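JOB MANIFEST
job_type = single_chain_structure
chain_count = 1
residues = 79
[input]
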Amino acid sequence: MNCNTDFARAVSAWNAQHPANWPRSHGPCPICAGSGCFGTVPGSDGARWCCFDCDHPETAGRRARKNGPMTGDALDVEA
């Protein structure tokens, strides 16, 4: 049994069962409440989000690169 594979499957299943209706761009962030900084990641079919607010907490989502936006999925918002 591969725990990483099992975890990835569980995350994917949870996200599929809890689809989000996030704005494409310039929306309010449901995590940090920033205005106009939140939207879906291009090419993710709406499954992933990004937030450009500098006050977005490091505990919600992941930073793809130094000083870049925070990104995540529905499970990151729920957690």
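[summary]
Helices lie at 3-17, 74-78.
The two ends are 25 Å apart (CA to CA).
exit_status = 0
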